[in-house]
Design a protein that fits this description.
This protein is an alpha+beta fold. Helices cover 32% and strands 16% of the residues. The radius of gyration is 25 Å and the shape is globular.
């Protein structure tokens, strides 16, 4: 145990109204009396507890003794400054805000273990947080949970050059190849090969990207103009590019319009109802280029695509990927965003977009669809000038019921977090939810680890 030393905590942490009580009618600790993150300059993001019907569970509140114990465990790693706590209390989409007053920054798994042991003994709720880039509110507190940041757990203790295995600080050893895990390698996995799955981390793939446009609208009443050609191009890609195909992304015309309008990024090809971004990653540049050439010749000759551009140097590859990867940023600048991350049969992937455009009409600014076709993963986004309960009621539970009707999943890759815990039943049967609850209770008997997340509130 580290030696105790006198601590001078900020006065705002410890003062409050005499006799203040918590939401369960019990006296509360000195930190809780002051209320939630009311420092000047706090972003105007509504408190989660005020926007959503959620009630604080009977956890303890942080005391002076707790702060002293944390300082002994992680010297210099206890953050209580209200300004420093503003950002980690707000989610990346700026739609959820917690009111944590303490953030801990351990460096090792041993420090994490000591922190959790103390929190378990004191019944203090903990909210783990990595980069805080989540889409479903899983990384920010709902009430006053202690934020446990992994930002300083970034050391690599050892690396094996033959097997490709590494031993990171604060985690279990990772087997070969995982160190190459890369955003582009995630884009269309499931049915497509994994970029970097060669085991030896010294292997560097030859990467090429193609941006294609096609599919003039075939006429009124077609439902999803041109999406059938998107699917046909995907099938052709898999057949002709095979093992070097590492990503197949699609996006609709409105996505590209918003990227141009809000981010001033220009599409390198002519306007079209749909766009496709294809990436290949192989070990033999000449072999890969030959395969790409044959594919492009076939696609253009058959009329599947009407325009396209290819990039092989990394600067141009990044420029093409920026058009796809910055869609989320463009949407956030368009207004309040209702985000859905769905898994659907690929032949029905875009139907929900046209369904919502008809259903919402002028009540929504834009309804867009884009995603990872190889996974059957649709990112469905609806923008509006501001948050609207009536618009939300038109979207939910309709989107989830529609997805369940296609035997899809309400969360394809973004997780469940806080936002989707009460709609998990559209994808999971009651028996599965009960088993999840039992496993949670086995591993976390007091429920202190990231409460209000993942499991349905009524489970």
């Amino acid at each position: 145990m580290l030696p105790r030393r006198p601590l001078a905590w900020p006065a705002w942490l410890l003062r409050g109204a005499p006799g203040a009580a918590g939401s369960w009618g019990r006296p509360v600790g000195p930190l809780a009396r002051r209320g939630c993150c009311s420092a000047p300059g706090t972003p105007e993001v509504p408190l989660t507890r005020e926007r959503y019907p959620v009630r604080r569970l009977p956890f303890s509140t942080v005391s002076k003794q707790d702060l002293a114990a944390f300082e002994r465990i992680v010297p210099g790693g206890v953050v209580t400054d209200p300004e420093a706590l503003q950002a980690p209390n707000v989610d990346w989409l700026r739609t959820l805000r917690g009111c944590s007053k303490v953030l801990l920054r351990p460096r090792t798994s041993e420090e994490v273990s000591h922190i959790l042991r103390h929190c378990h003994e004191r019944n203090l709720a903990v909210n783990p947080q990595g980069g805080n880039t989540g889409m479903v509110g899983g990384s920010v507190p709902v009430f006053d949970e202690i934020i446990l940041s992994t930002a300083r757990m970034n050391r690599v203790l050892s690396f094996h050059s033959v097997s490709g295995g590494l031993r990171p600080g604060g985690a279990e050893p990772v087997c070969g190849g995982t160190g190459l895990h890369h955003a582009a390698g995630l884009r269309s996995q499931g049915q497509l090969p994994h970029r970097g799955k060669r085991g030896n981390q010294r292997w560097r793939p030859a990467v090429s990207s193609i941006w294609l446009t096609a599919w003039d609208c075939p006429g009124p009443g077609s439902g999803c103009p041109g999406f059938a050609e998107v699917l046909q191009t995907f099938s052709t890609c898999k057949g002709m590019l095979g093992e070097i195909l590492s990503a197949f992304e699609f996006m609709d015309a409105v996505c590209m319009q918003l990227v141009g309008r809000h981010l001033h990024l220009a599409s390198p090809v002519q306007e079209s109802p749909f766009y496709v971004l294809i990436e290949t990653s192989g070990s033999n540049a000449g072999h890969d280029a030959e395969k790409l050439g044959h594919f492009l010749e076939h696609a253009l000759g058959s009329g599947l695509v009407t325009d396209g551009t290819m990039a092989t140097d990394q600067r141009k590859v990044k420029m093409l990927w920026a058009l796809r990867e910055r869609i989320t940023e463009a949407l956030s600048r368009d207004g309040y965003v209702y985000k859905y991350d769905l898994s659907l049969p690929v032949e029905r992937l875009y139907d929900i977009v046209t369904d919502l455009r008809a259903r919402l009409g002028p009540h929504a600014k834009h309804v867009v669809g884009y995603g990872h076709l190889g996974d059957g993963n649709l990112h469905l986004n609806v923008t509006a000038e501001a948050f609207s309960p009536s618009l939300l009621a038109a979207l939910e539970p309709h989107v989830y019921e529609w997805t369940a009707g296609q035997q899809g999943s309400v969360s394809a890759e973004h997780g469940v977090g806080f936002r989707k815990r009460d709609v998990l039943g559209y994808s999971k049967p009651p028996g599965a939810l009960q088993l999840m609850q039992q496993l949670k209770a086995l591993l976390d008997p007091k429920g202190i680890l990231n409460p209000y997340k993942t499991l349905p509130s009524q489970a």
